[in-house]
Specification:
InterPro entries: FAD/NAD-bd_sf, FAD/NAD-binding_dom, GSHR/TRXR-like, Pyr_OxRdtase_I_AS, Thioredoxin/glutathione_Rdtase. The chain is of the alpha/beta class and about 375 residues long. It has twelve helices and 17 strands.
Length: about 375
């Protein structure tokens, strides 16, 4: 301990120009988060004969929904979103086809349950594929919540509450983000997020989408496309951070296709008037410009007001990893290295980086090649 304090232990280890590992670790690399970035990195590291573990655990939503291995994009993001867009496009094509001579009875109905079942079956096959791929590459996978408890050590807690400790020479944080809530009465009790929508066990009916993010507008788009009554409540502008000419074109297009917009209002309270699947909710909203209050009734309220990095409950303070206190995001250098040299981070949790699945995948692969294959590409 004395030598460690004086720094002479470190000097001893760094002699001959390389660090001698003082003891053997359980793993060469432990990846916390089994989404696009984490899985890509883990599989890449396995190619170089490294001993790798992936810890992945989905904390259930306030309504109790969770999902399998693969991360947001696969389970509650890009993949189910595109499939539901496809459902909406097919409905539009049906209407168009009449003008091209196709004849069929007037009544065309959409079945929400058939669609979600098909979507969930497809996602289930992807989850299974990821598990098989990890097994084939000899990557250890645990469906457990990983958090740092000390230097080079994580605690993994499974859904039964059983805890295990693991050590590794290096760690990769790839925990991604989860939807934000408004912090108003009734939001977590009665509203859903995109984490709930794609496996919702009933048709959402008349829906209020709160937010003007791309998640908000995409969900509003396909819900309207399958024939639902959809309203979007916008606090200020559509698609902040995007080209505003394009954003306004999208807004106009959506209005032409029957989507209602309530602009410059924010919800302040959500109450349940009637239980059911779906029930009836009363939403009280306040103007962002004055004191005007409006009320509306909907079957479903979908919150899409942004996402927060999953970094505050994984023990980063125990190992001294610095995060941006305001956003929860992790600043890294140009090698995806945190301020703690043996801990790296990739994906949506990085400060000032793009939140995109292919970016996380590429970052994970390149990082591992730099760590274990002598590559230099950043």
């Amino acid at each position: 301990v004395q030598a460690h304090k004086e720094g002479s232990l470190q000097k001893q280890r760094e002699m001959n120009g390389h660090t001698v590992v003082p003891h053997s670790y359980d793993y060469d690399l432990i990846v916390i988060g089994g989404g696009s970035g984490g899985l890509a990195a883990a599989k890449e590291a396995a190619k170089y004969e490294k001993k790798v573990m992936v810890l992945d655990f989905v904390t259930p939503t306030p309504l109790g929904n969770s999902w399998g291995l693969g991360g947001t994009c696969v389970n509650v993001g890009c993949i189910p979103k595109k499939l539901m867009h496809q459902a909406a496009l097919l409905g539009q094509a049906l209407q168009d086809s009449r003008k091209f001579g196709w004849q069929f009875p007037e009544e065309v109905k959409h079945n929400w349950m058939t669609m979600t079942e098909s979507v969930q079956n497809y996602i289930g096959s992807l989850n299974w594929g990821y598990r098989v791929a990890l097994r084939e590459k000899k990557v250890t996978y645990e469906n457990a919540y990983g958090e740092f408890v000390g230097p080079h050590t994580v605690k993994a807690t499974n859904k039964r509450g059983v805890e295990k400790l693991y050590t590794a020479e290096k760690f990769l944080i790839a925990t991604g983000e989860r939807p934000r809530y408004l912090g108003i009465p009734g939001d977590k009790e009665y509203c859903i997020s995109s984490d709930d929508l794609f496996s919702l066990p009933y048709c959402p009916g008349k829906t209020l989408v709160v937010g003007a993010s791309y998640v908000a507008l995409e969900c509003a788009g396909f819900l309207a496309g399958i024939g639902l009554d959809v309203t979007v409540m916008v606090r200020s502008i559509l698609l902040r951070g995007f080209d505003q000419d394009i954003a306004n074109k999208i807004g106009e297009y959506m209005e032409e296709h029957g989507i209602n917009f309530i602009r410059e209002f924010v919800p302040i309270k959500v109450e349940q008037i009637e239980e059911g699947t779906p029930g009836i909710l009363k939403v009280t909203s306040k103007s962002t410009r004055g004191n005007e209050i409006i009320e509306g009734e909907y079957n479903t309220v979908l919150l899409a007001i942004g996402r927060d990095a999953c970094t505050r409950k994984i023990g980063l303070d125990k190992v001294g990893v610095i995060i941006n206190e305001k956003t929860g995001k992790i600043p890294v250098n140009d090698k995806e290295q945190t301020n703690v040299p043996y801990i790296y981070a990739i994906g949506d949790i990085l400060q000032d980086k793009l939140e995109l699945t292919p970016v996380a995948i590429q970052a994970g692969r390149l990082l591992v090649r730099r760590l274990y294959a002598g590559a230099t590409t950043k």
